[in-house]
Amino acid sequence: MTGTEAPPRGGIFARAMRGMALTATSQIVQNLLRLASNLILTRLLYPEAFGIMALVAVVLTGLVMFSDVGLGAAIAQSPRGDDQDFLDTAWTVQIARGFLLFLAACALGWPMAQFYGVPELAQILPVAGSSLFLSGFTPTRAETLARHLMLGRLVAIDLSVQVAGILVMVGVAMATGSIWALVVAMPGQGLARVVMVHWLVPGAPNRLRWDRTAAAELIGFGKWIFFSTACSFLLLQGDKAVLSLYLSLEALGRYNIAYFLASAPVMLGLALVQRVMIPLYRNAPPGASAANFARMRRLRGGLTAGLLAMLAVAALGGVWIVDLLYDDRYAQAGPILVLVALVQMPLAVGMSYDQAALAAGDSRGYFLLTALRAGLQLAGLYLGMETAGLTGGLVGQGLAALAGHLAIVGLARRHRVWDGAHDAAAGAAILAIAPGVLALHGPALAGLSAGG
User: Fold this and answer.
1) For 200, phi and psi rounded to 5 degrees?
2) Is residue 345 part of a domain?
3) Domain region containing 222
4) What is the pTM assigned to this prediction?
5) Cα gap 301→286, rounded to integer Å
6) 352: nearest Cα among 298, 289, 290, 291
7) Longest CA span, the chain
8) How many other C-beta atoms are found inside a 10 Å radius of the C-beta of residue 73?
9) Is 5 among the domain residues?
10) How many CA atoms within 13 Å lie on the side-chain side of 286?
11) Out of 28-32, 107-111, 439-443, which region has the weakest mean confidence (pLDDT)?
12) Considering only 74-88, 169-183, 218-232, which range has the smallest mean pLDDT?
């Protein structure tokens, strides 16, 4: 490692378990904070504001993901991941990318405002996009900690940044009742994280540098990550992009709230596997020994069981959760929450496999998998919307997730990480949960279908 950070303690699986516990705790606390702020803000702002911010999120997430070259994953898996020249080159690329993303957000403001008929987007996108420029200056010391599964300091920083952002949002919303409460917190949070990582994470400071061999490695690994994250955008945000063509801003705002609640377990799972799995696969590949495979089975089984349990709670209690937390304007989010939670279940089963490809440097295989899954999801959503409205679109997404899992299995088998017993047990659990959910909420789901 570089700098003055203490060396990691314990074996790789012990550090992975600590890392997963810290990340899970962080994600749960962040989601609770996000829920609390959401409940406050929905009472201070109007539903259309959340629809507009859903569009902003689609644009900014699209810019980030359509330009990602996998710097974090490259640092995590590269033999040079602790070399300062390599890290400084990655930081230089990161800053340049952030500046270009900010310019792109500025350029897209007016066209997006015209396309969606929302004049505010012309001003909102450049301000929100400045967060991308500021985030580019985040020191690579954060990625070094993640590489070595030393996540405690990063968790504390992320929680602190989120709390500060929520306080700003609520304060501005109380003072103005304006959508700008949701906008101004974005660059503030980006700047706060840069400052906190710079001052609180020990290690050598980054300098602008261009090491040719480091750049060649980053480009060779990142070219497939670039295409992969473009497809990941379609997986994570493509639904909102498609639905914005069918739903009003008010309806899109309700969908966005339901999606936030239903997808929280999957977002937790993604955060866990992205933080932990690459170092774990790199240092203790399951195919290398029976002991590694057995320990990975326990880890993967616990992760999947926890995620499916949380999704089952969201699916079974979705209508009542929305009725309890939100006023009558958001009631239609309840049955949406039920269906989205069901759709997310197949994703929870396969999410721990694909990082094995990145750990092995197989970014091309990772891209092909992501592209296939994105294509299936968009096709399922589009055909479902055309056939049966929002209900059909969500069902189409669920069928696409099931088909995509077969591709995940193929990649996992190639890298010797697939666990058939795990998948069979998880599949049986889903088949046991789904009929009960559909029977319990049949009338509400029928009403959603009738309402389009």
Assistant:
1) -105, -15
2) yes
3) 12-447
4) 0.68
5) 14
6) 298
7) 62
8) 25
9) no
10) 23
11) 28-32
12) 218-232
> Is 427 within a domain?
yes
Neighbouring C-beta atoms of residue 37, cutoff 10 Å: 20
User: Is 46 a domain residue?
Assistant: yes
Q: Number of folded domains in the chain?
A: 1
Q: Count the Cβ atoms, other than its own, within 10 Å of residue 248.
A: 12
pLDDT surpasses 70 at 273: yes
Other CB atoms within 10 A of residue 213 CB: 12
Per-residue tokens: 89: 């080159």
Q: Read off the pLDDT of residues 40-92 as tens digits, 9 standing for 90 and up.
A: 888 888 778 888 888 888 888 878 776 677 788 788 777 888 889 999 999 99
Mean pLDDT, all residues of the chain:
86
Closest to 225 in 3D by CA, of 396, 104, 75: 75
> What is the C-alpha to C-alpha distance for residues 371 and 358, in angstroms, rounded to an integer?
15
Q: What is the distance between the alpha carbons of residues 452 and 446, in angstroms, rounded to a whole number?
A: 10
Please give the Cα distance from 307 to 426 (Å, whole number): 10
Residue type, 21: A
For residue 450, pLDDT beyond 70: no
Cα dihedral across residues 383, 384, 388, 390: positive or negative:
negative
pLDDT value of position 7: 46
SS (H, E, C) 175-222: HHCCCHHHHHHHHHHHHHHHHHHHHHCCCCCCCCCCCHHHHHHHHHHH
Predicted local distance difference test score (pLDDT) of residue 452:
45
